[in-house]
């Protein structure tokens, strides 16, 4: 295994990543892109803005037989932004000022200065620094202000240098792929042939047992199989080596069949996308009545572009007063059953549906903690209800594990899955 | 630089991280903890579940002079979970079945089987695998089902092996720090002495210019200074080498003074925490009227434990009908000025404040895109208004950069900052 696919590596720079000030978003994004192109991703390295550490990370990718290294970050205006210099040294070439790029950046910065009132010598120094290009490299047009680079190392990997801000990095990626050196490399990479399945409500050990059973009858050594719990969903990914595509397909079919009851998607479509599709097919609108999730479910429904077609709106009824005033939950019901109860969850769903004139409503009320738990209703106890204008009622009241954030995130997931169940009418 | 602080490294395992299926949360968390303890974090390596790659990552941390390596993941029940084995080999010791740990895991799994109805041979195999401990290692009690490990390599780094689920990893961390081998190591680590500043509305190039001016008068080579844009805020971190604490303090004071107008916090307190504090001090409650952010601002306000003290609730008024029906925005106002207008933002703020009986209301309406933009109101145009019962009105209508997600996230940030300004009464 591992010999047949060309290897690629990701190097993310930024001392702020090593102090935990921010979480890296580029590593996962680039890894997914590279895997989808058919590379085996050897590793993602996060290093500080120390030139030696970056140089060592590049050498390691070379040592590990990587044919492509993608870096992110270190193209900014400050003194700790050193990627261009280090990559030039790695490739054994000097840096030259690219006059055309210098002019282009100056133009971008002039617009910035006019908009913000900031400008002057600080900006010009930034401009000059960002227009330095290793000799023989392909420069990629800026998406923000920093140009990207495609730099070949003779006898070593091709290095694609991208900016750190995720929007700029993602915006520049198509141009990097279209550059001649990357195109030449991609021509030699076999298609990924990856498959995935996602389940809701199935423990990882069940998949492990099924895989052991399949392995007893079938050689799986040329398919890399990973299972991973992503919040409430269990994801199984199958990545065949070239030639093992049929094995991956058979395992995929077997896993889909054996655990059909818990299967959410067998083709990689997200739950959000599946729900949007189901709501559109029905011509339904949705409204939310949220307590402990505090708007997270509504925000998630609005994440997708075009969601105004099926999202009517929602109420965050965090106080009891708001539950009664805005969603018509009877005060006596709260007094009798408590604000966290299946009765109130249903009243929130009905209230949201009625107040917004929606076809389906979802109510969520729970104890997110850390305080407020009782023996009968401990931290993590969350009541859900989905009701529809055509009379469906789907109710759950699980005890969810974890801390406040986990409980709220999982509650949002459960809300999405129950809405999906209602919209699928199953 | 770099010689005075002991180095530490983080190795995060999981092939799912290299396919981009999930984003790693443990690397940033561990890096922050290690930096706060006074280590210099050399790097974070994300590697797949291939034993050779994990072994190489450990060797690299050793080569780079790291005295501590913390790993996450690979302690699960499936065949691709190999961390215990690889770390034992790295330390040069065999694995033994820890009978006490075996019994403890069996007990935990029995509870799990009773709750979920899943159990049997699949679970027992998982149990046995998870109770294997490298000889001479300290085993750490499970937080989920997998025990952690503290494994010394003779003449090399100490390896702390933690589980992958963030809640389990974070829950086990105090026990790891309290273990004798880690305690002995920490006794030799000098205090971090780190300082940070956060700004809102200040470009990075201005900080770069200020730092150049300071550097002309003062040797900064023993202070690691990083600047990083985190969504709408610019964060500056100062990390002195031992002995350079006074220099870091002077730079910190200078940066705070020179850019006082844009300063949010000079002591690391988050904006969320500052807002919570300001609302509590005033005894105010807050209500939200959100359109394009779709509940993200309400959800963020509810993030902090105890937020029921000051969050009344909110309405996600995504459709025009909902704006009028639930928050009393006059239909004529929407017809005259458009749903995205400063007028409607104010009506949303007032409506939310009045409907929930709150002291401060915030209204947000904007064009999040990708569709719906016009020449006068392009994608990214967002109207904000904060109004208070005592007559303050703070309004903004910026054009925010980026795609749909960026615009909605930044809108949430701007909403938080405007609320903070109102609550501070400045």
Describe this structure in words.
The structure is a homodimer of 426-residue chains. With 426 residues, the first copy, chain A, is an alpha/beta fold. Chain A has 3 domains: 7-186, MoaB/Mog-like domain (Molybdenum Cofactor Biosythetic Enzyme, Chain A), CATH 3.40.980; 195-265, Alpha-Beta Plaits, CATH 3.30.70; 272-424, Maf protein (Alpha-Beta Complex). Helices cover 43% and strands 23% of the residues of chain A. Chain A contains 16 helices and 17 strands. In chain A, the strands form 4 sheets. Chain A has a 6-stranded mixed β-sheet with strand order 2-1-3-8-7-6, with helices on both faces. Chain A has a 5-stranded mixed β-sheet with strand order 14-13-15-16-17. In chain A, strand 16 (382-388) and strand 17 form a beta hairpin. In chain A, helix 5 (99-116) runs antiparallel to helix 6 (121-130) and helix 11 (271-282) runs parallel beside helix 16. The longest helix of chain A has 21 residues, at 404-424. The mean pLDDT of chain A is 91. At the A-B interface, helix 1, helix 2, strand 2, helix 3 and helix 6 of A face helix 1, helix 2, strand 2, helix 3 and helix 6 of B. Strand 2 of chain A pairs antiparallel with strand 2 (40-47) of chain B.
- Structural shape of chain A: globular
> Runs of chain A with pLDDT <50, length 5+?
none
Rg of chain A over CA atoms, rounded to whole Å, is 26 Å
> From the 3D coordinates, which CATH architecture of the largest domain in chain A would you assign?
3-Layer(aba) Sandwich
Q: Biggest sheet of chain A: strands side by side, in what order? A: 2-1-3-8-7-6
Helix content of chain A: 40-55%
Pfam family, one (chains A, B): MoCF_biosynth
Family (chains A, B): Belongs to the CinA family.
Protein name (chains A, B): CinA-like protein
Domain MoaB/Mog (chains A, B): 9-184
């Amino acid at each position: 295994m591992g010999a047949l696919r060309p290897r690629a590596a990701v190097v993310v720079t930024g001392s702020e990543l090593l102090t935990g000030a921010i979480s890296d978003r580029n590593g996962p994004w680039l890894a997914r892109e590279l895997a989808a192109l058919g590379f085996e991703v050897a590793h993602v390295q996060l290093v500080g803005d120390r030139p030696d550490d970056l140089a060592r990370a590049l050498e390691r990718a070379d040592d590990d037989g990587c044919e492509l290294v993608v870096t992110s970050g270190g193209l900014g205006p400050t003194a700790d932004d050193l990627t261009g210099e280090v990559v030039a040294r790695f490739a054994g070439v000097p840096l030259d000022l690219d006059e055309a790029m210098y002019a282009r950046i100056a133009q971008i910065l002039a617009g910035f200065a006019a908009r913000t009132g900031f400008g002057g010598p600080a900006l010009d120094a930034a401009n000059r620094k960002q227009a330095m290009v290793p000799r023989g490299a392909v420069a990629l047009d800026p998406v923000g202000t920093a140009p990207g680079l495609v730099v070949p190392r003779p006898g070593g990997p091709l290095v694609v240098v991208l900016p750190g801000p995720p929007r700029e990095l993602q915006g520049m990626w198509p141009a990097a792929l279209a550059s001649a050196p990357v195109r030449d490399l991609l021509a030699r990479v076999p298609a990924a042939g990856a498959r995935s399945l996602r389940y809701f409500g199935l423990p990882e050990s069940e998949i492990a047992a099924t895989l052991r059973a399949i392995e007893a009858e079938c050689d799986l050594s040329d398919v890399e199989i990973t299972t991973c719990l992503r919040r409430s969903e269990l994801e199984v990914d199958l990545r065949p080596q070239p030639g093992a595509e049929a094995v991956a397909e058979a395992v995929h079919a077997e896993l889909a069949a054996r655990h059909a009851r818990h299967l959410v998607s067998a083709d990689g479509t997200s739950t959000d996308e599946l729900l949007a599709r189901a709501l559109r097919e029905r011509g339904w609108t949705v409204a939310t009545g949220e307590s402990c999730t505090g708007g997270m479910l509504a925000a998630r429904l609005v994440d997708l572009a075009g969601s105004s077609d099926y999202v009517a709106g929602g109420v965050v009824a965090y106080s009891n007063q708001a539950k009664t005033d805005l969603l018509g939950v009877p005060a006596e019901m709260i007094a009798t059953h408590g604000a966290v109860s299946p009765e109130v969850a249903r009243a929130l769903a009905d209230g949201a549906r009625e107040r917004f004139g929606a076809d389906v409503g979802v109510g969520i009320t729970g104890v997110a903690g850390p305080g407020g738990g009782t023996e009968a209703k401990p931290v993590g106890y969350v009541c859900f209800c989905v009701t529809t204008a055509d009379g469906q009622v789907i109710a759950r009241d699980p005890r969810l594990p974890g801390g406040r954030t986990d409980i709220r995130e999982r509650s949002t997931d459960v809300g999405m899955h129950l809405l999906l169940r209602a919209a699928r009418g199953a």
